[in-house]
C-alpha cells in the first residue's frame, strides 16, 4: 500500500465538483466496511476504494472489486459487469489469516500477503471459494489478510465472516480489462461509468448508480 490515498474531505470535494449526484445515489456511511460486507453477503458486487493504493501487480483490497466467493454467479457477474475476460481466467480470494489453513494447503509457506502464490485448496476451500479459484485444477491464488497490515480490509472480511461463516471474499483488481489498476477517484468513476458495475465505495462514501425509470 505505497500509492496515493485520499481523505473523506477530498472525496467529498471531488463528488461536489463533479456533479455525481445526478448519476449516483450517494450516502456517507460511518461503518462502510460493515455496509459493504452486508452487500456482499446479499450477493452484490461492490468496488472498494479505500486507503493507499496498491503498488504492484495485484489488488490487495484497497482498489478492488469484491464479491461473494461461494457462488458461481459471482464469477459471472464480475466478468459480465466489469472484466469481460476469457471465461477460463480465474479470480482470486482474500482470506483472513485466522482461517487460511481451513482453505489452503500451505505446505512450508507461512505467509502470502501479495496474491502471487497459488495453493492447492482443501475440501472446504473448494466449496466456499468456487468462484475465486482455478476451475480446472482447483488452486487458489490467495491473499492472506493480516489485521496488522490492512486493518480496515481485515475488518470488512471479518464482518463478512460473521454474516456468512466464510472467512474470505472474491477479490479482483478494480479496472477494466486492459486498463491499469485504478488509483484516483477520477479513475474509479471512469471505470464505474464505463461498465455495468453499479456499486462503488469511495472511502466512506457509498455510491449507487441511479436506475433509469422506464416510461
The averaged pLDDT comes out at: 94
Number of helical regions: 7
Beta-strand residue fraction? 15-25%
What is the ordering of alpha helices and beta strands? Answer: HEHEEHEHEEHEEHEHEE
* DSSP helix fraction: 25-40%
Shape: globular
Strand order of the largest sheet: 1-11-10-2-3-9-4-8
Q: Given the helix and strand composition, which structural class is it?
A: alpha+beta
Task: Work out the radius of gyration.
Answer: 17 Å
What is the CA–CA distance across the termini? Answer: 46 Å
Number of strands: 11
> What summary fits the major beta sheet?
8 strands, mixed
Which regions are unreliable across 5 or more consecutive residues at pLDDT < 50? none
Essential attributes:
215 residues; alpha+beta; 3-stranded antiparallel beta sheet; 7 helices; 11 strands
Description:
The chain is α+β, with helices and mostly antiparallel strands and 215 residues long. 31% of the residues lie in helices and 21% in strands. The protein is built from 7 helices and 11 strands. The model has no long low-confidence stretch (mean pLDDT 94).
Write the layout of secondary structure elements.
Blueprint (H helix, E strand, L loop, with lengths): L7 H11 L5 E5 L3 H10 L4 E4 L13 E5 L4 H12 L8 E5 L3 H4 E2 L12 E4 L1 H6 L10 E3 L1 E3 L5 H14 L3 E6 L11 H9 L5 E4 L2 E5 L6
Parallel strand pairs: 2-10, 4-8
Antiparallel strand pairs: 1-11, 2-3, 3-9, 4-9, 5-6, 6-7, 10-11
Helix pairs in contact: 2-6
Summarize the structure in short.
The chain has helices spanning 8-18, 32-41, 72-83, 100-103, 123-128, 151-164, 185-193; strands spanning 24-28, 46-49, 63-67, 92-96, 104-105, 118-121, 139-141, 143-145, 168-173, 199-202, 205-209.
